[in-house]
């Protein structure tokens, strides 16, 4: 899929929200957390998220984006921890937020 300026802008906006929520969760669990968060950052290896903090981050993102359920299993599509990146979480939020918006618009029609 080619990246258009609108797609890039949307992805950057979603990344900033995801980054903010991840920083909050990371600092809650690791008081001295000061790592930079990039799209390529691993949720586990780089950010140090465990299963509990990952769930807390997902719940915060569901609330931030108005998503009913953000399926964590989709992050592991390749069956490999390498897919647990900030970028894959951003893409998952974009996909599911778009589905929620489409469903809401369909209910209003």
From TrEMBL:
<feature type="domain" description="Carrier">
    <location>
        <begin position="12"/>
        <end position="97"/>
    </location>
</feature>
<dbReference type="InterPro" id="IPR006162">
    <property type="entry name" value="Ppantetheine_attach_site"/>
</dbReference>
<dbReference type="InterPro" id="IPR009081">
    <property type="entry name" value="PP-bd_ACP"/>
</dbReference>
<keyword id="KW-0596">Phosphopantetheine</keyword>
<keyword id="KW-0597">Phosphoprotein</keyword>
<dbReference type="InterPro" id="IPR036736">
    <property type="entry name" value="ACP-like_sf"/>
</dbReference>
<dbReference type="Pfam" id="PF00550">
    <property type="entry name" value="PP-binding"/>
</dbReference>
<protein>
    <submittedName>
        <fullName>Acyl carrier protein</fullName>
    </submittedName>
</protein>
